[in-house]
């Protein structure tokens, strides 16, 4: 913001230091920003970290140069386990105020502790790996990784929330409540955590006490009609002869019964048992055969699943490593940028694929460093790529020119040498694409005629404006185009006249282009 009277810049002040004018709008903005900062500070003191983040973000919306608010926001992110977000805020803070800024001390403290930085990287990688497992519906491995994350970073709110959500999905409500309560101890008023806790209480409820006490272990039964045995009053009578005969009859019956059982029933029982035994043997043999077959099938399934798991782990590890490598390079680039090592910072930025950066704060830092270092590293990157091309290292040339285009997409020479490298590697599709891009996007480039010539050699002249190549005398037209359109190609004309439209002709003409130092070519 500038003074409305003398147009002098106003930074965190509403009284112009040049003319003394009091800008009421600037005063209101600064007061509003400071008020929200005080609210955020008060919430942070009572561990309402989510509320503090909201208030401090609002403060920075009013005044992005509020250094105290930005530094405090970085500290809160650090306390919540968001180390990358914290570093982003501190880097921006140092960008606005380099001297007397405690954010520089915070960054230096992290950089001076490689173990801490490595642990932070490990936490991010394991959290991303857990997300990958969840996308593959592998909740068990995701829970294992999240447990490791919270052990390494006990204040990582997002890890607690995700772990609690997984426990809720598996209906382990007691474990989910325990994990979410740990998150509440770090951030008391986090809306996501409180919403999960409310859902756990709704689904599981709280244990109720037994109001009736313990049940009796033994019960006394009162029989209303007890059995009473009375003594007889008559005389005892015994008939010895009758008793002896009864004993003989019983003995004879036992003998006859034993004979019947032995002669009739026992053979039938034995035959039945033998038949049942044989049937059981057949059934058990069939079951054993079926189970052996099932075991073989399960073993094959286990082998296939192990193979798939190894592939998934390899894919997830590569994805996490790529994301972690991009974040690591961005942090190193920011460190070099803060130390005014613009050349090293720019070279690191050129190695980062922009699509790998998804966080808004990281993207902002990436753009700041890229704009600050583009002019100092583009020529160096182009020289490295051209040197690889001259040495016939076309893969290295493609890598070098790709870095040039990441830093400056208007560098027409880099587009041309990308097409030549792909052509010499035999990738005609990519080669034709880069030649067309040069012709359509850089109409004033001095490489237009060469691009048209090589595109004609590939046999693809579609979507090219103002291309007139006669099919009756192709070789004569190509030779004359080489001699008239490119003044820097004199050293290779003899090679064009002695060879036909093969890769050797492309080497003599394309490699002989002289660099005029102006990468845009326009």
TrEMBL record:
Gene3D superfamilies: Tetratricopeptide repeat domain
TM segment ranges: 244-265
Coiled coil: 281-315
Keywords: Coiled coil, Membrane, TPR repeat, Transmembrane, Transmembrane helix
Residue span of region Disordered: 466-522
Ranges: TPR repeats: 157-190, 412-445
Pfam families: TPR_16 (PF13432), TPR_19 (PF14559), TPR_6 (PF13174)
Signal peptide: none
Organism domain of life: Bacteria
Protein name: Tetratricopeptide repeat protein
Lineage, highest ranks first: Bacteria, Bacillati, Bacillota, Clostridia, Lachnospirales
């Amino acid at each position: 913001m500038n003074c409305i009277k003398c147009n002098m810049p106003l930074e965190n002040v509403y009284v112009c230091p040049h003319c003394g004018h009091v800008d009421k709008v600037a005063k209101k903005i600064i007061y509003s920003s400071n008020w929200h900062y005080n609210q955020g500070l008060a919430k942070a003191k009572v561990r309402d970290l989510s509320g503090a983040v909201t208030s401090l973000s609002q403060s920075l919306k009013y005044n992005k140069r509020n250094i105290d608010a930005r530094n405090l926001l970085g500290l809160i992110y650090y306390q919540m386990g968001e180390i990358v977000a914290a570093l982003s805020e501190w880097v921006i803070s140092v960008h606005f105020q380099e001297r007397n800024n405690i954010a520089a001390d915070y960054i230096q403290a992290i950089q001076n502790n490689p173990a801490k930085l490595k642990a932070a990287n490990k936490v991010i990688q394991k959290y991303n790996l857990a997300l990958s497992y969840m996308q593959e519906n592998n909740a068990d491995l995701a829970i294992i990784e999240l447990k490791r994350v919270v052990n390494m970073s006990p204040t990582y709110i997002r890890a607690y929330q995700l772990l609690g959500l997984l426990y809720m999905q598996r209906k382990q409500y007691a474990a989910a409540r325990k994990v979410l309560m740990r998150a509440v101890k770090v951030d008391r008023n986090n809306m996501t955590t409180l919403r999960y806790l409310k859902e756990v209480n709704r689904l599981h409820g709280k244990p109720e006490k037994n109001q009736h006490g313990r049940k009796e272990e033994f019960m006394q039964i009162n029989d209303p009609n007890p059995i009473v045995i009375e003594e007889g009053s008559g005389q005892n009578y015994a008939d010895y002869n009758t008793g002896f005969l009864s004993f003989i009859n019983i003995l004879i019956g036992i003998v006859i019964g034993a004979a019947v059982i032995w002669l009739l029933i026992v053979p039938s029982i034995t035959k039945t048992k033998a038949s049942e035994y044989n049937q059981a043997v057949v059934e058990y043999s069939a079951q054993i055969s079926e189970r052996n077959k099932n075991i073989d099938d399960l073993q094959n399934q286990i082998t296939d699943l192990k193979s798939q798991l190894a592939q998934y782990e390899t894919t997830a590890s590569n994805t996490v490593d790529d994301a972690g490598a991009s974040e690591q390079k961005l942090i190193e680039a920011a460190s070099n940028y803060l130390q005014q090592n613009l050349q090293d910072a720019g070279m690191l930025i050129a190695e980062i694929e922009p699509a790998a950066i998804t966080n808004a704060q990281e993207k902002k830092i990436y753009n700041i460093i890229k704009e600050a270092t583009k002019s100092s590293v583009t020529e160096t990157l182009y020289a490295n790529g051209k040197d690889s091309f001259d040495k016939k290292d076309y893969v290295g040339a493609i890598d070098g020119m790709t870095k040039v285009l990441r830093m400056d997409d208007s560098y027409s020479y880099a587009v041309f040498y990308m097409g030549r490298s792909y052509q010499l590697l035999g990738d005609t599709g990519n080669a034709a694409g880069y030649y067309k891009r040069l012709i359509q996007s850089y109409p004033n480039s001095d490489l237009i005629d060469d691009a048209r010539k090589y595109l004609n050699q590939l046999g693809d002249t579609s979507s090219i404006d103002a291309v007139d190549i006669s099919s009756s005398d192709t070789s004569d037209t190509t030779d004359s185009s080489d001699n008239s359109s490119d003044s820097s190609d004199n050293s290779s004309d003899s090679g064009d006249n002695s060879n036909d439209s093969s890769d050797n002709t492309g080497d003599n003409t394309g490699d002989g282009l002289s660099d005029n130092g102006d990468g845009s070519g326009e």
